[in-house]
Write a structure and sequence with these properties.
By secondary structure, the protein is an alpha/beta fold. It has 7 helices and 13 strands. It has a 7-stranded mixed β-sheet, sandwiched between helices. A two-stranded parallel sheet has the order 1-2. Helix 1 crosses helix 4 and helix 2 runs parallel beside helix 3. The longest helix has 17 residues. The protein starts with a helix and ends with a strand. Bound molecules: S-adenosylmethionine.
Length: about 250
């Protein structure tokens, strides 16, 4: 039975996502109509990877890192036994709890975390870790990618904007005869900690795709690939400016 007062609170709020509500309506959002498909495209990619790589999901646990208003936590909760969302902003955690209550998903909880500074805790691991929309807002993305990789016992799914050029080559290491390979680059950009979708500082260091793939292999994932995009996919995925990358551990 849906709590009418809570449903009204949901209807009175402007959301980052269009949630389908129990009364057949959708939440109001301020995201432009031509950008909205990024959310459904990422949700479809998540569902595709679960279908194709996680057949036993109903017996497994999942984490949603940077869970925001809980849009992807709710999708995870449809497939996994239990879900935990990690999110730095209280207003977003409160909103996520409200919409989760109204939609009805008792197998999700939301906790506070700064994923850029949090230390790995072996008691906090899950079979599947989702890391959507965060690393291009961080000044220390390597910390968070390493942390997420440690938290993932088997599967990771990362979505991010990438630095547009895959640069490789050689880096001198004290003498011209000693070289190290360059496995990717990072682009420095301003970020916006004052906004609800921004990072926790005003600086972002954004990886190239080859940097991200190198890091995932380095952090223990033996199967790593970019999810394909169809002709009707959101334009950023078709151009490779945003990517969704799967990693699987042996
Ligand atoms: C662009 S939104 C992406 C939200 C959601 N994961 C998605 O893909 O739609 C970025 C989210 O990361 C959260 N966030 C930013 N910095 C964070 C940090 N250091 N630790 C945890 N969450 C953070 C923000 O509050 C926001 O909810």
């Amino acid at each position: 039975m849906v709590d009418a007062a809570k449903l009204q609170q949901v209807k009175d709020r402007t959301w980052f996502y269009e949630f389908d509500l129990p009364d057949g309506t959708r939440t109001a959002t301020d995201i432009p109509a031509d950008v909205l498909p990024i959310h459904t495209s990422r949700r479809d990619k998540l569902a595709w990877i679960i279908q194709n790589r996680v057949p036993d999901a109903q017996d497994l646990t999942a984490f949603d890192l940077a869970s925001h208003e809980g849009y992807y936590s709710l999708e995870l909760a449809r497939h996994f036994k239990s879900v935990r969302g990690y999110e730095i902003r209280k207003s977003s955690r409160d909103a996520a709890r409200l919409i989760t209550d109204v939609i009805g998903a008792p197998n999700i909880d939301y906790v506070e975390a700064d994923l850029q500074t949090m230390a790995f805790d072996p008691a906090q691991t899950a079979d599947f870790v989702l890391l959507y929309g965060l690393i291009y807002h961080l000044e220390n993305p390597v910390h968070t990618i390493r942390l997420a990789s440690q938290m993932a016992r088997k599967h990771i799914l990362i979505e991010t904007q990438v630095f547009p050029y895959d640069i490789s080559g050689q880096l001198e290491d004290g003498h011209y005869k000693h070289m190290r390979p360059i496995e990717g680059v990072f682009g420095l950009a301003p970020d916006y900690a004052a906004r609800r979708e921004g990072g926790s500082t005003d600086i972002a260091v954004v990886p190239s795709l080859n940097a991200l793939l190198f890091l995932l292999r380095n952090f223990g994932f033996s199967e790593v690939f970019v999810l394909p995009s169809g002709d009707d996919d959101y334009e950023q995925f078709r151009r490779g400016s945003h990517v969704v990358v799967y990693g699987g551990k042996p």
